[in-house]
Structure formats: C-alpha cells, structure tokens
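Predict the assembly for these two chains.
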Amino acid sequence: MSIKEIEDSIVEEFSMFDNWMDKYEYIIELGKGVPVLDHKFKKDENLITGCQSRVWLGCEIKDGKLWFSADSDAIITKGIISLLIRAFNGQKPSDIITADLSFIEAIGLKENLSPTRANGLVSMIKQIKDYALAYNSLKNV
Amino acid sequence: MIESLDDIRAQFPALEQKFYGNDLVYLDNAATIQKPLSVISLMDEMTRLRNSNVHRAMYRLSDEVTTLYESARNEVVKFINAPGRENIIFTSGTTASINLVARSLSDARCGYLSHKYSIGGCTNNGEMFLGDGDVIVFTGDSHHSNLVPWQLAAQRCGAATDYLKLDDDGRWSVSQLDSKLASIIESGKRVRLVAITHISNVLGIVNPVKEAVEVAHRYGALALVDGAQGIVHRKVDVIDIDCDFYAFSAHKIYGQTGVGVLYGKSDILDAMPPFMGGGDMVNRVTYEKTTYAPLPLKFEAGTPNFIGAASLKPALEFAALLQEGGIATEVERSENEIKSYLQCEFEKIEGLKWYGKAPLNERIPLYSITVKGVHPADMAQILDKMGVAVRTGLLCAEPVMDRFGVGVSSDSSQPQGMLRASFASYNTLAEAEYFIASLNRCVNMLR
C-alpha cells in the first residue's frame, strides 16, 4: 500500500469514533501495543527531546525501503508514533520525503503536532524526513 | 463590592469559557493568573484613549498617561511597604528584574567602586560588585530565572555559584544556609549575594525569607528574594524582610503580562551601573559621556510598557483586598479547604506522589505530582479534553526535577517531569473535586 492509501485507511478507522474519549482510548491502546524499541536504538543519539516527553527513533534500510522503530515515554505520543510508523514503514525514501501527513489533521490530532506541545513529534517527523533525504541522496550517488 | 467568593469569581470573564463542551477549570495560575474586570477596563481605556508616551511630552494626554504610570508605582510602594518611589523599578518581569541585578552587579568596570556599602554592620569597602573568587549562593528550589542569571553573572566576572540542597520534603533551612555561608567564608572566599526563592513554583512551600536575609547579611552578602510566586500568596513587607532586592511579575498578580517590578534599597541601586542604556534613563548625554537620571528612571531605558505597568494599580488594589480586606479570611479558609481536600485525595490514588511536604499554613494551594507509570504529558492531554488546564513538563526548574528523579537525566524508563495544579483565589472546592475526579479517570485510562 502507498503512504496515501495507509493514511486513508487510518482516517477511515478513526471515523468510527464519535467522541474524543473513545479516540484517545484507541490511541492509548495503540501506544501500549508498540513493541519495545530494540536496545540498539534506545540510546542518546536516537533521542529526540521535547520539554514534555522523549522520543527515540531508529531507522534501517532494506532493499531500498526504510524501516523505522520508535518509542516514547508518553503513551499518547507513542500511539501517534505507531500511526506514523504504520504509514512510513517499508516505503521508499522518495515517497516519504513528499508525504504530507494530512491524516493527522483529518483524525483530529493536529494539536499534537503543534510546536507548543513540545512532545518531540514534530522533531520526529523532521527526523524521519531527514533519514529519507539522506538515504535518497545515497541512492543517487 | 466584593463580599463573597462568588463576587471574586464574577470579576474574571475568562473563567466563563467552555472547552470541548466542558467548563474551563483553570489550574495554571502559577504560570499566569486571569485578569479581573478592573484591570481589563483600565487596559481597554488606555489602549483606546490614553495612549501617549510617558515622561516626555508637554501636552495633557501625555501628562495623564504619565500620571497613570506613576500612580501604579505609588501603588507598588504601598503594596510592599517600600520606603519610596525611587525603590521601585519597572521591568518586563521577574526574569528581567533578576537579570538586571545579576548583570549590573557583575559589571564592576562600569560601576562605582568607590562606593561604600555596609551590609549587616560590616563595611565592604565599596566592594558589593561580583568578582574573581566571589560566590553567589541560590536556594535549590529556584526556577531557571533565579539560577541562570547567576550562572551567567559568575561566568562574566570569574565568580562561582553554589546552592542549598533540598531535603526529601523539598525544603532548605536557615541553619543550612548559615553553615553553607560559613564554609564558603572559611575556604577564603567571599559570599557576595544570596538569591532566595520566596515560594517555589514547583513545591509551593513558603520559605523563611526574613530569617534567610538576616543570615546573608550576617556574612556580608546582599540578599535578593525571587517573589514570582511569593507576592501573590503572602503579604510582602520589604522593610520587615530587609531584603536588598525583591523581584516579581505583574501578570501573576492580576496585572498585565510583560511587566515586572524590581524593588531595591536606594543606596545599592544608586551604586549600581545601569543595565540598559537609552532614552528616559539619562541626565546629560554628550557624544563622549553620559550621566544618568536619578532613581528609579536610571534603570528604565526606552519606552516602558506603560499600559501594562499602569495595570498594576487596579491589580494590586484587587490583590490587597484579597489579602487584607474583609474577604481575606474567607479566601484563606477556602484555600485551606482546597489544600486539605487535595492532600487527602492524593493519598488515595495509587502510585501518586506529591512534592513539597510542609504544614498547611506553610504552603500555597499549588501541587506538583507524579503518578507511577503514567506520563504527566498524557495526563494533561486527557485533562485538557475534560476542560482542566494544568501545567506539565520540567516547569522551568530542571534542577528541581533532577532532585526528585524526574528530570532529563532520569533513567529512560521513568517519565520525566511533573504535573502541576495551581489554584487561585477564584478557584472553588467544586473545581478541586472535578479535578480529582478527572485525574482518577485519566489515570485509569492510561494505566
């Protein structure tokens, strides 16, 4: 599936929830389900700091596609991370670079991407795109 | 007329809002407090009709604005029992007030080294300025504003900083300060300044400032009190406390943002070089040299936030009413009721820790908490959906977070930061009950 198709399916899933409580319970459930980050990634150089919560992000390339693993000490952040990973995992760097991630707004979680929340998510997305850019330029060498 | 708690609450239009369909329960008062109608209407009137730069013009409108600005200064004099107007400097906030002192005292090159200043009976031969081999001591419950400026000052002039460690309840003591200063003196160094937090923005404990100031003076050090939270919750009398400086912000005590006060003793302020140069702070300027305006204008360079500063008059009148008016005992009773209720309910939530253990009358209705295994940011996000506004994170006091094992340096399995609920005069017991019910609900969701 393309990033866009995955985004659309996430939006559809979230359309089932008609109140914020159910939506957050679902995100919390997703957050609890994220596999614990491989120890090799949970180190300071993979740490993205925010004032509120911490995010760890690791990235590997296999057959020209990127695979991310991530963790956060905040469960809601972790839930949103799991959605981002679902959209990006196994995708080509060039597709990741151009992804607009409009689904975050469509499912009503835009406030989580506000820089004032300082939860590390904005920096995480930038880091994902930086990885994609770096691998993309490697490929073009 | 304000005769009841309901009358107090009715003064704050911001409290009538709803978020996500729920009534706003505003519990972030230590960050900034809502504004009463008297402040709002003055700001409105000044923005509409009384806009003209202060201290400069020869026309009626400017005179009127200058009068409003200067009468706010008079109100500050009255509110903190300062000796006079020359002791009150308008700044942009607590942070700017402390930076002014830190910068000016570490700038001996521009200073008045011949000045003789006597502290606690010992004459320091004019050497009140910070220099090589000097030590600045601050209390371990300081927020960044009473900590970073001193580290910067120390770097600038070769001085060192030291601090009072907090015990497990979040307290430091006067005897601890005494032995700290004694050991610094014994090591052959000089203690130039002690920076004391009146009430910590994390722990809510009211510190014994008067006694601490007395100890600082005994060792020949100046004493600065960071009153960011203290000014709101305790009657401050700078003559009684005898501090050399007291700093606070307007926006935490019902006034406008971007305005603060630095109180200083006249002879010290007189001896200090200006922090910023510009208009309004001068006596005579030539291409080569400038002499400065007398206090307090010497430290008020450039166009001040005159509308914001003027807001301090109605703001402090309101605060004085709550501290000393007929309603004062009712406000105190309500705050005590909220404190007892919260402390009792906190004990019932599994894994919950609250910080700043002190007798009820020695702490303010401000509680920073952690819940084992639950991230404060997650709790705050869910509370927000219920209409409850609280603060989370490192609370601009990273060293305090480190002290209690929830700082940036804590192990990565431990969520960092705390969740803080800070109550004001207008908050009700019903709001405290709603907060606890919401907290229970979100902890259950997240655990």
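DSSP finds six helices and three strands in chain A. The helical segments of chain A are 3-14, 20-33, 75-88, 93-98, 103-106, 121-140.
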